[in-house]
Amino acid sequence: MTAPTLFGLSHDCLRRILGFLNPPSALELCVAYGRPEMMDWFYEDGGVYTYDGTDHFLPTRHIKHLRYTDVSPNVDELAAYTGLHTLDLSDSKITNVDALVACTSLHLLDLGRSRVTNVDALAACTSLHTLVLTGTGVTNVDALASSTSLHILDLSRSRVTNVDALAACTSLHTLFLCSTYMTNVDALAACTSLHTLYLNKTEVTNVDTLAASTSFHTLHLHSTMVTNVDVLAACTSLHSLDLSGTEVTNVDALAACTSLHTLILHMTNVTNVDALAACTSLHILILHMTKVTNVDALAACTSLHTLSLSTRVTNVDALVACTSLHTLDLYGTAVTNVDALVACTSLHTLNLHSTMVTNVDALAACTSLHSLDLSGTEVTNVDALVACTSLRKLNLHSTRVTNVDALAASTSLRKLNLYWTRVANVDALAACTRLHKLNLQSTGVTNVDALAASTSLRTLDLRSTKVTNVDALAACTSLRTLYLHSTKVTNVDTLAACTSLLILR
């Protein structure tokens, strides 16, 4: 048997604490300082010392990473931590960081959601690499002109209105200005290393300055005042672009962005996406609530994985070339035919809610289908779904479906909505033993005996049905919610086995 040691520490660790070997780590200092109960936490937290106000600071020697929790720190003590590399003051009540003028080795500083309003002291922190000021009252960042090594800066939800000083931060590659009062970002023309910029919910009107950032990778302009993105033709490395909620009408310039992976045009005035034929690497495209009517150009986007279309689209035949398609949202479109999807054998999620589709036989080829929404369509037959054995979620609400026998093959089905359909028989569901949620409201169902096999059932809605007997549900011991409004069920004594059941009449 191994001989016990103090606090369960190895002899080597103890010798370090006693100073016989190398200087102790922050973890060992913590133990030596009389807080052995924190040892496991340290291992899990990567050796960052957290000061929670219950002790004095650890000795400044060797402390490189420091974090506060739920305390009002005495910032004057920070001046002694000249070797500090990482400091986390997020969500603290700190208001003043003048003491950091002594922390010239500081590499990462998080002041997010603190009460700090002035960061002039950071002019001395010339090694600063990452700075988080999100949710603070900071209005001026001129001091950062000396932080020429700054790589990542988060000013989102601060009160900053001017970032001219950042022209000196030529190493800056990631900048967050979301929800600020920014109107102009021309100074960023000097930040030639900039590759990620978030301007969401600002009043910026012009991004022409980005023409100098040829290595630009990610640009978010959601809900800005930008109307023209022609300058992006120079950003040939652009990977992700969010223009949602802007007044942009033309995206022809994107033909030059052949590396484009993600494009969000939701709630724009874009009418034409032919230029995207050149974006053969496009993976995600959101066109919901645009004025686009034709998507034939997408036939060239064979890597397309996720697609959401405008309500004005009527034809999706071009998608026959998009064999990698995983998620397709056609909600509210005027599409009438989805036969092209026979080629999309990897399709996982399909939303046809409130479309004009009447036939879904092509879906027999989509054997990987997990989620299908046909609600509000004129579909009458779902026999093709017998091939979709991986189906987990199916919504047939307000369709003309009368028969669901094909679902006997969908043994993985978890959620099924038959509300306001003409289905009268659900015996096939006896095979759906993994069913969690079933809505039979306002159907013609009179008998639910088959559900005795659905032992995983948690929610069942029988409102406005002609069901009179629910004895079979006694086997559904996981049942938590049962809706019986407007039914003729009078006896629920047999459901005593469902100990967590809430019956709503």
UniProtKB/TrEMBL annotation:
Cited SUPFAM superfamilies: L domain-like
Annotated keywords: Leucine-rich repeat, Repeat
UniProt keyword annotation of Iron present: no
Keyword Phosphoprotein attached: no
Pfam annotation, one family: LRR_4
InterPro entries named in the record: Leu-rich_rpt_4, LRR_5, LRR_dom_sf, SDS22/Internalin_LRR
PANTHER family: LEUCINE-RICH REPEAT AND IQ DOMAIN-CONTAINING PROTEIN 1-RELATED, LEUCINE-RICH REPEAT-CONTAINING PROTEIN 9
The protein, known as: F-box domain-containing protein
UniProt lineage: Eukaryota, Ichthyosporea, Ichthyophonida, Sphaeroforma
